[in-house]
């Protein structure tokens, strides 16, 4: 970057050379054409001696002196009108620039220059273009006192830090897009580290489909996966629960209607064991979506009773099919995190506290690892978490500041409404549209912005666009940027590693930056790559362990473990000693089925208090 580095103290802007010893070559050219958004500068590619100066290159900023102001422009094209090069004399060239804004010196001597995105006076023909000053370049990206963090340096001048307004970036949602291998995950880790340092009250939930972020934030995060997750089935809404039962296939309306009637009855039976099938219709009536515990055994009991009714003769095939679905899901070892409690208890406080880090005990980040989770249940779990995140922020009245970060966001919010899971889309749309009012923020990370729901993307006010090779993806980003900075996106297909173009509410002006370099041991996925490198030999492959993971069936020694484990409320999920050893259990009758929350003495009913 050709930047003038000598300090300046309020010299008249009409004076092109700031001291007598400066080279006259600081004057690069003159304006020969201008319209409302762009201008053309006439200049020479070589000096009078024939040596090519290289002062004009694409991507550099220049300033045009207008006396009272300096118009700032970005070079996006260079060429010779005759497309011929002469080794004799100077070669005239045309430089195309995009007008970005203008810089004014402060009213008082020594005051910092002030940048304005608007242009009050356009360059006239013959106006002098010269290299931009360091102070002017700093003024272009100055955040005017907003709470900021430095995430890297400017690509044009590595001596100037690239700052973003962290509060505006979070509150108005942000998106990081880029093709595979350009450093998206590393940029996310860096941004999260800086955000935690600047906002200690911030809690972060990461949907991590590749299990890579926990190793990059070891001192800040707890890891939650299908083995440590405790998300009871009764916290699911009817639509989310149906997604689990039908394994992602089309639902049967008759079975859903039956569930809508039977689940409230099961919840009422848990609350009032002696009430029978009677359901209160008052203000505290329960619905299928109310997050109140109930037993699978009670639900199956209600199905059996309805099948036994004379007037339900025509509904028996539907009810029998529904019962089979419920029993199959409850017995599936992959769904232990939902149905693993033999004695159903109201553990909603512990569940929410563990997932959303309340209190966080110095670890405000939860990495929800989904690599080992069944694909048909991921949609439901993400829907539950997004819905709970918004509700927690809403009912905490702004006391809980939460960032919901979606890695590979196009999996949960596809552009095609026929794909994906509608409740997940609705829950994330609610965060995107209303979350900033209540302290629930959304972060979107994707390599295919063209496959992402445009409604979600339109709510992100700050973008970090890394290298994108796909034309459709580039068009999506081009439609989101301001017209005055559209030429900046010409670099999207040719940017290097860790480089990004940042634009939106979080930055003062469209900025091409290079993210800071993280230590190698903090790069996402480093631990997994190290493991893979250490076991490259085919002799080291443990086929028995792989098959056991594939079957996902617990060993016989684990089948006798109590699902309702004793949990210390002072510990958090992910801590080494979070789960205590199970208490000794008396042997049960072999003919008694312990799967659905029944105890021999109560047969699914809560014991009465004295």
Architecture overview:
The chain is α/β, with parallel strands linked by helices. 28% of the residues lie in helices and 18% in strands. The chain contains 16 helices and 18 strands. The strands form two sheets. It has an eleven-stranded mixed sheet. Helix 11 links the parallel strand 14 and strand 15. Helix 5 (253-271) crosses helix 7 (316-331), helix 6 runs antiparallel to helix 7 (316-331) and helix 10 packs parallel to helix 11 (422-438). Mean pLDDT is 78; it is low at 1-25, 556-574 and 582-610.
Describe the main β-sheet briefly: 11 strands, mixed
Arrangement of strands in the largest sheet: 9-8-18-17-16-10-15-14-11-13-12
* Shape verdict: elongated
Give the strand tally: 18
Low-pLDDT residue intervals, each spanning 5 or more residues: 1-25, 556-574, 582-610
Structural class: alpha/beta
Mean pLDDT: 78
Q: What is the beta-strand fraction?
A: 15-25%
Question: What radius of gyration results from the CA coordinates?
Answer: 31 Å
What is the terminal-to-terminal distance? 81 Å
Query: How many helices does DSSP assign?
Result: 16
The residue fraction in helices comes out at 25-40%
Task: Please describe the structure with a list of short key phrases separated by commas or semicolons.
610 residues, alpha/beta, eleven-stranded mixed beta sheet, 16 helices, 28% helix
Please give the structural blueprint.
Elements (H helix, E strand, L loop, with lengths): L26 E8 L3 E7 L16 E5 L4 E10 L12 E13 L9 E3 L11 E4 L2 H7 L7 E7 L6 E5 H6 L2 E4 L6 H15 L3 E7 L12 E4 L13 H8 L7 H19 L24 H13 L7 H16 L4 H4 L8 H9 L8 E5 L5 H21 L5 E7 L14 H17 L1 E7 L7 H5 L3 E4 L5 H10 L18 E6 L6 E5 L10 H9 L8 H9 L4 H4 L51
Helix pairs in contact: 4-10, 5-6, 5-7, 6-7, 10-11
């Amino acid at each position: 970057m050709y930047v003038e580095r000598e300090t300046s103290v309020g010299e008249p802007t009409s004076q092109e050379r700031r001291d007598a010893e400066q080279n006259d070559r600081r004057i690069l050219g003159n304006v020969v054409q201008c319209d409302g958004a762009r201008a053309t500068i006439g200049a020479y590619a070589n000096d009078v001696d024939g040596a090519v100066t290289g002062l004009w290159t694409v991507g550099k900023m220049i300033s045009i002196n207008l006396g009272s102001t300096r118009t700032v422009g970005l070079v996006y094209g260079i060429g010779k009108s005759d497309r011929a090069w002469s080794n004799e004399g100077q070669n005239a060239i045309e430089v195309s620039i995009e007008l970005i804004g203008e810089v004014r010196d402060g009213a008082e001597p020594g005051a910092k220059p002030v940048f304005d995105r608007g242009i009050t006076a356009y360059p006239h023909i013959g106006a002098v273009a010269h290299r931009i000053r360091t102070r002017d370049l700093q003024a272009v990206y100055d955040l005017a006192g907003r709470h900021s963090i430095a995430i890297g340096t400017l690509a044009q001048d590595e001596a100037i830090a690239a700052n973003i307004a962290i509060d505006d970036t979070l509150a108005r949602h942000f998106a990081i897009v880029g093709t595979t291998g350009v450093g998206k995950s590393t940029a996310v880790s860096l941004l999260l580290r800086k955000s935690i340092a600047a906002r200690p009250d911030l809690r972060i939930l990461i949907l991590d489909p590749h299990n890579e972020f926990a190793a990059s934030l070891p001192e800040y995060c707890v890891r939650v996966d299908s083995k440590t997750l405790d998300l009871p089935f009764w916290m699911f809404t009817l639509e989310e629960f149906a997604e689990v039962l039908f394994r992602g296939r089309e639902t049967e309306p008759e079975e859903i209607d039956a569930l809508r009637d039977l689940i409230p009855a099961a919840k009422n039976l848990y609350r009032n064991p002696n009430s029978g099938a009677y359901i209160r219709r008052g203000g505290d009536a329960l619905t299928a979506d109310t997050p109140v515990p109930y037993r699978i055994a009670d639900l199956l009991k209600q199905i059996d009773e309805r099948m036994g009714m004379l007037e339900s003769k025509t509904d028996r095939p539907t009810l029998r099919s529904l019962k089979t679905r419920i029993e199959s899901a409850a017995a599936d070892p992959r769904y232990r995190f939902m149905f693993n409690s033999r004695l159903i208890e109201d553990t909603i406080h512990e569940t929410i506290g563990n997932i959303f880090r309340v209190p966080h005990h110095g670890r405000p980040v939860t990495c929800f690892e989904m690599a080992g989770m069944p694909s048909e249940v991921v949609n439901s779990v993400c829907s539950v978490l997004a819905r709970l995140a918004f509700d927690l922020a809403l009912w905490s009245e702004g006391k809980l500041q939460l960032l919901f970060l979606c890695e590979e966001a196009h999996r949960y919010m596809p552009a095609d409404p026929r794909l994906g899971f509608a409740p997940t889309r609705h829950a994330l749309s609610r965060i995107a549209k209303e979350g900033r009012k209540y302290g629930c923020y959304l972060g979107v990370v994707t390599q295919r912005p063209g496959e992402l729901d445009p409604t979600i993307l339109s709510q992100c006010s700050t973008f970090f666009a890394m290298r994108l090779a796909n034309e459709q993806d580039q068009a999506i980003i081009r439609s989101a940027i301001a017209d005055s900075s559209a030429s900046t996106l010409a670099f999207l297909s040719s940017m290097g590693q860790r480089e990004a173009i940042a634009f939106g509410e979080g930055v003062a002006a469209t900025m091409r930056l290079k993210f800071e370099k993280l230590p190698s041991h903090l790069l996402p996925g480093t631990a997994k790559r190290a493991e893979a490198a250490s076991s490259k030999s085919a002799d080291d492959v443990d086929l028995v362990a792989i098959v056991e993971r594939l079957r996902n069936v617990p060993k016989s020694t684990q089948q006798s473990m109590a699902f309702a484990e004793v949990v210390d409320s002072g510990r958090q999920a992910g801590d080494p000693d979070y789960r205590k050893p199970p208490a000794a259990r008396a042997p049960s009758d072999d003919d008694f089925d312990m799967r659905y929350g029944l105890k021999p003495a109560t047969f699914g009913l809560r014991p009465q208090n004295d």
